[in-house]
TrEMBL record:
Organism expressing this protein natively: Jiangella asiatica
UniProt-recorded name of the protein: ABC transporter permease
Keyword Acetylation among record annotations: no
Keywords from the UniProt entry: Cell membrane, Membrane, Transmembrane, Transmembrane helix
Membrane topology (UniProt): Multi-pass membrane protein
Length: 378
């Protein structure tokens, strides 16, 4: 019972922030001259026909999987007190290398997919190790280095799809994609599950990688809360001095945290690569998951379960964008709503932290007034 109460108190600020964000968004919609109730109906409108509803559910699931993985990647850095803004570049590099290697090898179906996943994780980890080493050896802020590496990743990916990983079947001026992955390197969609649930099947494939994302979330939940590594990671983030005094190397933990964050970031682009596109193209590559993952991690309070809920919320809002536009509400309203939600969470968390601090100070005065008097006098 105590654990349930603690869990409820932990997520209460998020619930309050969501309510405040909804009110602020309604006010914004009123200011631009639209009806907030119409916007609310559009948010929960999945379509009139069964096929349209199935398509909306499929888009919701497909969008949530990479957002969840991106939020997990960012949260590992946050727990260590690191701000890994480089998830965007890390998953871009990982996706293009995984696509190129996956198209170049031949292997049985399960092994082929496993190799692609491992290559993506290794590529993301290697790219994330660069800012980690710079921070440990030269004191370079990971914020600055990861921002710069995001821009560099765009150039590297463009080179890779035009030179070593280019599809030779395309013309000289058309080499902007990698070769297609063979059938053994693809993950089947889960559209059949809709039929088992009595729903229409979506027209686009629903990524089967979502089950791998769930498995990754479970593993990370265990690692972060039940292992020595997770304990040292939390300790180093909360109190580096105490962690060092207990024999935990801050430099080592910085590198480990960034490498693990990069490895998780390497998975972000795989749901689409293995489930639908089967190739990397600079034109069709979906960017932005890395930056949105920061908001998802903040909203989920750096906990896998909370991140899953935040990813579902953000993907739900993204899915409603076209429907909002049909009601005369600009698509930017979705982005504004997401920003307001994160801002409200930060504000409510800070208010809660200060109230808790004042309550502890009052409790200390009641329990030991003499000590408090001496501290004030000194």
């Amino acid at each position: 019972m105590t654990r349930v109460v603690a869990w409820a108190r932990g997520f209460a600020p998020t619930v309050v922030a969501l309510g405040v964000a909804l009110l602020v968004t309604a006010l914004f919609i009123l200011i631009i001259g639209e009806n907030p109730l119409a916007a609310l109906r559009a948010l929960f409108d999945f379509g009139e026909s069964p096929t349209a509803q199935a398509n909306s559910l499929g888009v919701w699931i497909n969008r949530a999987a990479p957002l969840f993985l991106s939020g997990l990647a960012v949260s590992v850095g946050f727990r260590m007190g690191l701000f890994n803004i480089g998830v965007e570049g890390q998953y871009r590099i990982a996706t293009v290398i995984a696509a190129g290697v996956g198209a170049a090898i031949v292997a049985p179906a399960p092994l082929h997919v496993l190799v692609i996943i491992l290559v993506a994780m290794l590529a993301g980890a290697a790219y994330a190790a660069i800012p980690a080493v710079l921070k440990v050896t030269r004191g370079v802020s990971e914020v600055i280095s990861t921002i710069m590496l995001n821009s560099i990743a765009i150039g590297i990916a463009a080179y890779l799809i035009r030179r070593p990983f280019a599809d030779p079947d395309l013309g000289e001026g058309e080499n902007t994609t990698t070769r297609d992955l063979p059938e053994s390197g693809r993950i089947p969609g889960i559209n059949d599950l809709f039929g088992l649930l009595g729903l229409e099947e979506p027209r686009r494939p629903v990524y089967g990688f979502v089950f791998i994302a769930i498995l990754v979330g479970i593993v990370m939940a265990v690692v972060l809360s039940r292992t020595r590594f997770g304990f040292e990671l939390r300790t180093s983030g909360l109190n580096p001095s105490a962690a060092t005094a207990n024999g935990v190397s801050a430099s080592s933990m910085t590198i480990k945290a960034m490498v693990l964050s990069g490895a998780l970031a390497g998975l972000v682009g795989l749901p689409e690569l293995l489930g639908e596109s089967f190739r990397f193209s600079g034109e069709s590559f979906v960017a932005g998951y890395g930056f949105t993952g920061i908001a998802v991690a903040l909203l989920g309070r750096n906990r896998p379960l909370g991140i899953a809920g935040a990813a579902l919320l953000f993907s739900f809002l993204d899915r409603a964008g076209p429907r909002l536009q049909s009601e005369g509400i600009p698509p930017a309203a979705v982005v504004i709503m997401q920003g307001i939600i994160v801002l409200c969470v930060v504000i409510v968390d800070e208010i809660g932290r200060r109230r808790l601090l004042r309550a502890e100070e009052r409790r200390a005065r009641v329990e030991d007034p003499q000590t408090v008097t001496e501290e004030v006098a000194s």
